Amino acid sequence: MKALLRQALVTLLLTATIFFLLQSTVQSFIVVGYSMEPSLHQGQRLLVNKAASFLGEPERGDIIVFHPPDNGRADYIKRVIGLPGESVEIKDGMVYIHKDGQVLALEEPYVKEHPRDNFEGGIIPDGEYFLLGDNRNNSSDSRRGWLVPRRNIIGKAWLSLWPPSEWGLAPNHPLPQQPATG
User: Fold this and answer.
1) 170: region left, alpha or beta (phi > 0 left; psi from -120 to 50 alpha)
2) Which of 14, 32, 48, 170 is the most buried (most CB within 10 A)?
3) Is the CB of residue 156 less than 8 Å from the CB of residue 66?
4) Quick check: helix, strand or coil at residue 160?
5) DSSP secondary structure letter of residue 136
6) Contact, 82 vs 99, CB < 8 A?
7) What is the distance between the terminal CA atoms of the chain, rounded to a whole angstrom?
């Protein structure tokens, strides 16, 4: 009887440990809205890698889930565009990154349509990020004057689980950049 009880207790502890490890490293997220089309769609279910936010800094092109700056109840999902120490400019539909006297133009093959409005932001402080939705003309994002502090980042989109036609790795893109001309 003691052996059976000990085995049940060990199984229960192991199950609880695995449960808490999973809870601290991955989270399910459902895309709400159309701001990330065509990359992500309304109702699409993702797994978010919460450990990624502990293991390294977000990179340009990463799709991240975060607590919104207005302390709203629903979490947001957007793409990292601007990193600390940079400034972002949008001119004639192109996104430019300014850093250390250099201007880089981003190549963004995933964008639904280029933004209609121009934008010029200031230097992004340490520990904060400039985010944009892929559906640039239908997205509430950093162009509205907010940045996302590192502490608000929940994690990086990792796997698409639903619908089955979208199953696979999340569409994070390392962004090719080239020196701006003209």
Assistant:
1) beta
2) 48
3) no
4) strand
5) G
6) no
7) 81
* Domains annotated on the chain, with CATH: 27-179 (2.10.109.10)
Residue 9 Cα distances to 12, 15, 98, 165, angstroms: 5, 10, 58, 41
**143 half-sphere exposure, CB direction, 13 A CA radius:** 20
> Which alpha helices (DSSP H) does the chain contain, by range?
2-25, 52-55
The amino acid at residue 5 is: L
Sign of CA dihedral 99, 104, 110, 115: positive
With the CA atoms of 159, 61, 124 and 144 taken in that order, what torsion angle do they form, in degrees rounded to the nearest 10?
-80
- By annotation, the residues acting in catalysis are 35, 78
The rounded average pLDDT for each run of 10 residues, N- to C-terminus, in the chain (182 residues) is 80 73 68 86 86 76 86 83 93 90 86 87 92 90 89 85 74 62 50
Report, in this order, helix, strand and coil percent for the chain, each rounded to 5.
Answer: 20, 35, 45
For 43, other C-beta atoms within 10 Å of its C-beta total 11
Whats the size of the chain, residue-wise?
A: 182
CA 9 from centroid of its chain's CA atoms = 39
Q: What is the rounded distance in angstroms from the CA atom of residue 86 to the CA atom of residue 98?
A: 6
